[in-house]
Amino acid sequence: MADNELRGSLPWCLANMTSLRILDVSSNQLTGSISSSPLFYLTSIEELSLSNNHFHIPISLEPLFNHSRLKIFYADNNPINAKITKSHTLTTPKFQLASLSLSSSYGDGVTFPKFLYYQHDLEDVHFSRIQMNGEFPNWLLENNTKLRQLSLVNDSLAGPFRLPIHSHRHLRLLDVSNNNFQGHIPVEIGDILPRLISFNISMNALDGSIPSSFGNMNLLQILDLSNNQLTGEIPEHLAMGCVNLEFLALSNNSLKGHMFSRNFNLINLRWLQLEGNHFVGEIPQSLSKCSSLEGLYLNNNSLSGKIPRWLGNLTWLIHIIMPKNHLEGPIPVEFCHLYSLQILDISDNNISGSLPSCFHPLSITQVHLSKNMLHGQLKGGTFFNCSSLVTLDLSYNLLNGSIPDWIDGLSQLSHLILGNNNLEGEVPVQLCGLNQLQLLDLSNNNLHGLIPPCFDNTKLHESYNNSSSPDEQFKILFSIKGHQGHVEKKIQEFFEFTTKNIAYIFQGKVLSLLSGLDLSCNKLIGHIPPQVGNLTRIQTLNLSHNNLTGLIPSTFSNLKQIESLDLSYNKLNGKIPHQLVELKELAVFSVAYNNLSGEIPEWKAQFATFNENSYEGNTFLCGLPLPICRSPTTMSEASIENERDDNLIDTDSFFITFTTSYVIVIFGIVTVLYVNSYWRHRWFYFVEMWITS
């Protein structure tokens, strides 16, 4: 009866099926407590699956203590009743379970149920999200020598991670991730658990070095020690002995030194996660042996040197993620052979040269090359017909030339970030052919011409519904004696985008919600197309620092989701549309340094939060928070009064000034004639000639 839409409680007629051996009602909407249900009477039951319902499960399992044949009990994703009754502590269960799985988001302060102390045939145990306070139950391994899988994920376990004294040769999977374990990983772990296939102790608070005894686990396929506080270097014995290792995650620790030496036998590696450490030196040549490598994650380290050309020979690579290092040199042309590549992120390095014109893997979804020193033009072959490309971030480089006409061939492109380059030419209308486009940043370039009026053909318009998420995730599959399992890792995309006058780092699912248009700091001219007001989905619009003229379109009142609107440093004129007061989400607004005039929108709602800085540089604007606008009558009277004042002359001052000036001139002439005989004779001669004539 699994995977149906069954609701309500279990029917009591089930109590009559006393010979029932297997009951599976998982993945329904069933409710009730198993303490007062017909399950209490099914004493012949061997396999009971209640997962993915709304049953109230007592963690003590006391209602099932008389079910002596019960071997398998699954009750994942149900409310767990944390209360352990006093009678339970005095009762021994009749069952000997082989497989047990419980998980819930309910309950706290729970200790390991006492009935587990009486179990000796357990093979698979899974507890997750139950917040079972206490230490790691090493006694569970000592009491159950057949135990193959033990998963205690997100159970609030704490204290030191102690292993049993004796070797446990049957355990294949041990997952104790996302707890609060402290202290060191036991140095003898490789000797105590020599036949582990998968070990995950990530997201704890462990410190110290990585035990070299991991190298004794020659069956190990998955090793995840990420998100701890581990120090030191990667043990050479680990790199030599774990010959079957496919997944190695040591990310987000404090490891240092070189990644690997020449003594390296991890040739079966498929996924290598070393990001968020302090590794130095070049990317080791030894990784070239990993012909099956699919994911390489080296970001946030201090790696240097050039990107190895041999990476292009690892044709199974689908993720190359190495931002925030000190890598230099060009992008190897051998990358053109990575036909399966989906994500390339080498941003925030010192990469130089131009983009290889042959680089256009058909499966590529994300390209992040920002904050490097790439130069040259976007050539015709680069990214040509990459119809799966979702994100292209080439910002903060030295790229020049124009935005290519073939850009509309990137039919799935939703995030195009080309800001802070030296691009020139016009904003191509082909961008309007990207009907999935939701974020466009062309800021800080040398673009000129008009703003295309057709951006409302894209996802910037609300008529397009975004259901995609830029998050990528992958699974590693493994098999333990016929029991299939997997480890999942999610890769979160991130990039920088300026909104509300602040550069933010956006990542994860928020990217699918972010929408904006930034054409600031260019040389654009002409009017703002009224169609921009149809981009009702955008949260940020920045057209500042251009040469735009004309009016602010009244259609901007349609931008109901807008949070940041910057039109400053242009040549806009006319009034600010009063309809903008309807923008309830607007947090940042600037029309500074234009030629706007008249009364600003009413000082209410969001506009009551904007100060005079939003309007400075517009002499003829008025209204709160600027000086209050004067009425036309008042302005007319003031003008007439000023005119009268201008026509009035102070006659007394005029005559005094005139007389003084006249006396000074006469006195100056007499002085010159008295002192200088030459000019005196010339003066008398001039007077004589004037009289005789």
From TrEMBL:
Keywords from the UniProt entry: Cell membrane, Glycoprotein, Leucine-rich repeat, Membrane, Receptor, Repeat, Signal, Transmembrane, Transmembrane helix
Membrane topology type: Single-pass type I membrane protein
Keyword Zinc on entry: no
Residues passing through the membrane, by range: 654-675
Location of this chain's protein in the cell: Cell membrane
One Pfam family this sequence matches: LRR_1
Keyword Transmembrane helix: yes
Signal peptide: none
SUPFAM superfamilies: L domain-like
GO CC annotations, alphabetized: plasma membrane
Domain of life according to the entry: Eukaryota
Family: Belongs to the RLP family.
Name of the protein this chain belongs to: Leucine-rich repeat-containing N-terminal plant-type domain-containing protein
Species whose genome carries this gene: Citrus sinensis (Sweet orange)
